[in-house]
Amino acid sequence: MCTDCVQKEYPNRGNTCLENGSFLLNYVGCAKCNHRDFMLINNKTTEEEDGEEIVTYDHVCKNCHHIIARHEYTFSVVDDYQEYTMLCMLCGKAEDTISILPDDPRRMAPLF
Question: For 47-96, how does the pLDDT look when each residue is reduced to its tens digit (9 = 90+)?
Fold first, then answer.
C-alpha cells in the first residue's frame, strides 16, 4: 500500500461503507508513474466465514499497475441488525448498523 498516492491515510468516512469502487477525492495520483487517472480493481475475492461476508480487492493504477491500497469490506447479520465495515487506506474506515425490522427499535417514535 502506498502512502504517497493518497491525500489522507484511512480517512474517517462515518457510516459510508463501499462494497466496491474507489474514493477518488482522496487520490492524489500514482506516486510511481505520476499519472492521476482512474484506478482498476484487481484480485477481488468474496469469502464467507462464520456467517460474515468478506470482500477484498486491490486499488491499482490504470497506467503502471502500481498497488495503491488494499480494500476490505465486511457484511454480517447480528441479532436483528445488518452490520457493515470498511477498511482501506484510500477509501477510509467506516462502520454502519441497520435494523432488519421495519421499525428500528433504536429510533424514537415520532411525536405526532
Answer: 998 889 999 999 999 999 999 999 999 999 988 888 999 999 999 999 99
- Whole-angstrom Cα distance, residue 33 to residue 55? 28
What is the predicted pLDDT for the residue at 100? 81
- Pull the grid cell for residue 94: 467506516
Cα–Cα distance, 15 to 20 (Å, whole number): 15
DSSP state of 62: T
User: What's the rounded Cα separation, in Å, for the pair 70 and 88?
Assistant: 6
What per-residue string of b and e applies to 5-26 under the rule 16 or more CB within 10 Å gives b?
Answer: bbeeebbebeeebbeeebbeeb
Sheet holding 81-88: strands in order across?
A: 39-49, 52-61, 67-78, 81-88, 92-99
Gap between the Cα atoms of 95 and 83, Å rounded: 7
The values of phi and psi at residue 49, to 5°, are: -140, 115
pLDDT digits (tens, 9 = 90+) for 21-45: 899 999 999 999 999 988 999 999 9
